Amino acid sequence: MLDLVIKNAKVFTPSGYFEGDIGVKEGKIVKIGDIQEQSDKTLNVQGKYVVPGLIDGHTHMEFPFMGEVTADDFYYGTSAAVGGGVTTIVDFVTPSKGQDLLSAYQKWRETADPKVISDYGLHMIIREVNPTIMEQIPEVINRGVMSFKLYMAYKGELMVTDGELFKLVREISSHGGVVGIHAENGEVINELVQEYIMEGKVDPIYHYYSRPDEVEIEAANRVASIASLVKGVTMYQVHTSTGEAVDVMSSYRSKGMNYFNETTPHYLILTLEALKKPDGFKYIMSPPLRSDDQRTKLWQKLSAGDIATVGSDHCVYSVSQKKRHKEEVPSFHEIPNGVPGTETILPLLFYFGVKKGKISMERFVEVTSTNPAKLFGLYPRKGAVVPGADADFAVIDPERKVKISPDVLHSNIDYTIYDGIEVEGWNVKTVRRGEVVMEEGQITAKNGSGVYVPGKSLK
Ligand code: DUC
Ligand code: ZN
Ligand code: ZN
Ligand code: ZN
């Protein structure tokens, strides 16, 4: 007797699609094909597209940053995730200044465990180097946190020096960890920010002018070069916003290095023009939104396979937080950086990517599920539709027309940066380890029903 059979599924994978039924027992896929066996529950998904549950490899829930803590806690944030067919998030443990890595990990687990609706994995941010931190890296990896994030920007808050970066890349790699990089030149940004402030140029668009394309491209070149000194390193640049930075990683990859890029939907959908709108402050994230030309390049590179993953960088601040609780919009440098995104990866990539003919369904699955699962040590438990894998699925109605608004989303804020955009194709059901956790916009799972999924190290 099976627990669940998904009937008449058209299932997309990185290598094509198949039509048939999927049998589930105890949260795992146990059978694929024409299933006649009895089951407790049947879902007929005729006419829909089934994809492996999305893995959003880039979220910041309850993230203390720039004087605010992000408004989506693990309950709201993972409700938004499953709303958008994301069955696993990988969130960034963020130690406070002076805190050791293991106590930060413990805090993240204790905060997330009682609240999560989706499953979750963790990355570790390292913001400073001291003997305790260096010593704890292997144990952090043992606990399933095999991917890290190092910042080349946010001087005084999260940025590490090039020397620290080198030291950390070497230590993380030697224990089979993966190094994520926020590549922006923090020193140059600081200079530009100070100059604009002195000149009284404080509107949101100056956030863009203070972080031009070149600061990302330079940092990408620098980190690629530094990391190439470390044998066997696996590195990925998070939230890549320029085609030139993607080219940097591709050129090292063609020399045999394991270098990858992640981009985010906002760089694929929006442009810097959004920062000039009356509510431009809502669109401040780093790296900033770019030109239409960069947006075109990113789509081309995504389609060509030069970008490995699409993660959301879900980092939500309410309007009041964005305005730092003032009436007037504050200077661009005081506005906390970050935008919502986990719930809209699927509809945006499906409509603007697949339906508009920019990427195939195979590529869609690869960048939203299979590749992040592989990169973060979750594969094949996650990111694969094979017997033995977790039964995680998003069920897409490819014809459903939806106008995006806060009303159709689950974050703990009352706006979306995609307000008014009409898409065709919407996630109508989310299955996480065999349980329907979202149906037609309703969250049907209990707080804390998601589990921590440890990532396996590369060693
Ligand atoms: N960029 C953001 O926009 N928010 C969180 C941190 C970051 O790097
Ligand atoms: Zn060591
Ligand atoms: Zn970042
Ligand atoms: Zn981020």
TrEMBL record:
Keywords of the record: Hydrolase, Metal-binding
GO cellular component, as recorded: cytosol
Enzyme Commission number(s) of this protein: 3.5.2.2
CDD domains named among the record's database cross-references: D-HYD
Residue span, Amidohydrolase-related domain: 49-437
The keyword Metal-binding belongs to this UniProt entry's keyword annotation: yes
Known cofactor(s): Zn(2+)
Keyword Plastid: no
GO terms, molecular function: dihydropyrimidinase activity; metal ion binding
Family statement drawn from the similarity comment of this UniProt entry: Belongs to the metallo-dependent hydrolases superfamily. Hydantoinase/dihydropyrimidinase family.
Protein name: Dihydropyrimidinase
